[in-house]
Amino acid sequence: MEPYDTATVLTRVLTSGVVMSIEKNDRELPGLERALKKLTGRSNAVLVNSYTAAVHTALVAQGIGHGAEITQPGLDDRTAAFLAWLGVSVRDGSPATFDSIGVDGGNAGRLRELAATGAPALVVNLTGLGFGPAAAVLTDDPKAWARGERLKIFGAFDLRTMWTQEEADPDLVPGVQFNYRLSPLVAACVRMALTKAAQPAGAAS
Amino acid sequence: MITDFPSSPLPLPREEEAAGELAVLGGRPMIPKGLGRTVFPVITKEDVFTMLLSQRVAPEKVVADFAEAYRAYVGAEFALPTASGTASLHMALAGAGVEPGDEVIVPAFTFIATAQAVVAAHAVPVFVDIDPKTYCMDPGATEAAVTPRTKAIMPVHVHGLPADVPALRALADRCGVRLVEDASHAHSARIDGAVAGSLGDAAGQSLMADKNFPLGGEGGIAFFATEAAYRRARDYLERHGIDYGMSWIAAAFGASQLARLPYYDQIRARNAELLGDALAETGLFRPPYVPAGYVHAYNMYRITLVPEAVGLEDLPVYAVKEAVHELLVAEGVPAREWQNTPIPCHLPFRKRAGFGGSYPFTLNPDAVRDHTPDDFPVTLRMLESTLTLCRELRSPVEYERVLRYADAFRKVARRPDVIRKLVADGGYRRPWEKAARLG
Ligand SMILES: Cc1ncc(COP(=O)(O)O)c(C=O)c1O
Question: GO MF terms on file (chain B) (predicted)?
């Protein structure tokens, strides 16, 4: 990424004063969600602060927790260790419980093509873009999205009203809850990188 | 350009304004409509420039340099930067040697993350009541909750006032358990000069952008008193493949904010003193209690109501509080309850699904309780008789805002007749009879 682009994006967000993920006026997180949905063709996105947070979210989204067994082809050791920590056992094989792609400066332009996979949840690791740990889970299932979204903000269903909302859907509240929230500044940079990469060669703005 | 620079200044308060009619009765609010926003965090050219320079530095180094600078400021031995405060608490517990099924004693009054971090460590939170003056974990109740399976005591320096660490340290040593701080509200808070985060065997602290010391978004940091504890935490992440890494973007912002933290601390202390003096004169309102030798960081400012001081002792205190809350909000003061029920009464600790199949609660069924709010009478008493200001003392450029808050409290305290009428009409409920809220 050209330093100048990142500089402009960071300065723009800092000037807006909105750096908090649970800020009413934040536009960066919804902006990245929109971009990812468009680029992957999925209807729902959960943004999180790391690849492992996304794997956790992809499982919780599908109601998979401690004591469950899943099938997953070709897991790497690190992810296998993480699933063991979650108490989920894995059988090597198909169908995949989640698909996973790692995006970096080299392949960001091909996200649409990479995202053409079949599992109910797609983990997109955005860390390789260079703005710090960042990831997303994409899914077409609105209920899966709702479950996943709540894992990252202590069971709340909307970042913007996290503190004050009252529960309407207790069945969707996860047991263990994390802060897996992504920072708007990081989201803004990731979106810039994805948008640039998606432009046809030579169309730099 | 979208900017957070205020479009117009808040006028200095005039004396007759505080003597005017209550906003609820049609008077002019102390904080005029459209001027209610407290800008936070304050972002300066130094933040922008530091951020831009960081792009030229290796990301790991930006994060490591920030963590080292803040570790030195706190005076802790070892530091591990994390993606969030919750992650830092998890790491503090892992570093302290908390193992699956262990019991960790936490206060019933805190943010839910304190207790969820215990579950994240595959351990079981055991909830105890708070001290009636400090609103922090009660050492006596803590002692009564220690069992052979207790591994750690985790006090929270609630709102920025350090918990009774001397008593809890002595208790921990006596029982052979670890002391782990949740210092998420307590940046720069001190006991006899020692900074929160450096007081326990380990500590976790949120650095998210709504805390007194904000990073550029989400972040946290764990502190450890020994290298062995620090290594245990790092090994834990490695062994379990967990990515809790902090973004260099968040860290870069923290580096420049850290240089200004002592300035902001002084402004907050000055604002708290000004407001406290004004409240003390009203009779109805009592400012936060601060023991001798303690420095309160005022991440939040919890005000206690004293209805008997204005002849309202015959009314239920929760109803007086609700009425006062309405009056203050009408004056433009964003007072909040911040917590309305003990943490063990929140859904995740009533259902205890944990990671699934009730893990880790299944590891230690004896530690598990079905709590009702009545199990924590001091917490309930605090919830029904207090209101909280959050960001409101922080903004360093708006002295006039604090003056106006003080006037709003004066205005409300002068009208017990209106409070009485609202209570009569109100149909108010106790805080914990309403649905649990996160904050
Ligand atoms: C007392 C307390 N502990 C822990 C946390 C969790 O921190 P974070 O939101 O950074 O994960 C908070 C946060 O808001 C808090 O108030």
Answer: pyridoxal phosphate binding; transaminase activity
Residue B93: strand, helix, or coil = helix
Domain range for B173 is: 45-255
* B residues 257-286 closer than 8 Å to A (CB): none
> Residue A202: which pLDDT band, with cuts at 50, 70 and 90?
low
Are A67 and B356 in contact (CB < 8 Å)? yes
**Mutation choice for B interface testing from A11, A55, A66 by most B CBs within 10 A:** A66
Q: How much distance in Å is there from the Cα of B85 to the middle of ligand 1?
A: 5
Of the partner residues B116, B119, B249, the one whose CB lies closest to the CB of residue A183: B249
What's the CATH number where B121 sits?
Answer: 3.40.640.10
A14 located within any domain: yes
| ipTM value | 0.97
Chain A residues lying within 8 Å of B4, measured CB to CB: 15-18
Cut 0.95: pTM above it: yes
A79: contact with B, CB 8 A cutoff: yes
Q: How far is it, in rounded angstroms, from Cα B287 to Cα B278?
A: 9
- The string over B237-261, giving b where at least 16 C-beta atoms fall within 10 Å of a residue's C-beta and e elsewhere, is beebbbbbbbbbbbbbbbbbbbebb
Q: Residue B101: count other Cβ atoms within 10 Å of its Cβ.
A: 18
Residue B99 located in a structural domain: yes
Q: Tell whether the model's pLDDT for residue B423 goes beyond 90.
A: yes
Asked if A49 lies within 8 A of B218 by C-beta distance, the reply is yes
Q: What is the mean pLDDT of residues A112-132?
A: 95
- Which residues contact ligand 1 via a Cβ below 6 A? A 179; B 84-86, 110-111, 113-114, 156, 182, 184-185, 206, 208, 220
In a domain, A205, yes or no: no
What is the predicted pLDDT for the residue at B253? 98
pLDDT of A181 over the 50 cut? yes
Chain B contact for A90 (CB, 8 A cutoff): no
- Total count of domains within chain B: 1
Mean pLDDT of chain A: 93
Residue B62 lies in a domain: yes
Considering only CB atoms, which chain A residues are within 8 Å of B244?
50
Place of tokens 């690849």: A51
Q: Is residue B274 part of a domain?
A: no
Q: Chain A window 99-158: which residues touch B at a Cβ cutoff of 8 Å?
A: 127, 130-134, 154-156
Measured between CA atoms, how close is A110 to chain B, in angstroms?
25
- H or E element, residue B179: strand B178-182
Beta strands B386-389; A135-139: pairing state: unpaired
Q: Among B5-9, B182-186, B260-264, whose mean pLDDT is lowest?
A: B5-9
Ligand 1 center to A109 CA (angstroms): 37
Query: Is pLDDT of A204 > 60?
Result: no
- Which letter does DSSP use for residue B101 in this model? T
How many structural domains compose chain A? 1
Provide the residue type at A153 as one letter.
I
Rounded Cα distance between A51 and A31, Å, is 20
| Residue B277, domain member (yes or no) | no
Residue A98: phi and psi, rounded to 5, are: -145, 150
CATH code of the domain covering residue A103: 3.40.640.10
pLDDT in tens, B55-73: 999 999 999 999 999 999 9
Residue A205: pLDDT above 50?
no
Indicate whether A28 belongs to any domain: yes
Sheet containing strand B190-191, strands side by side: B194-195, B190-191, B294-295
Percent of chain B with pLDDT over 70: 100
3-class SS at B124? Answer: strand
Q: Is A50 on the interface with B (CB under 8 A)?
A: yes
Q: Compute the nearest-CA separation of B228 from chain A (Å).
A: 22
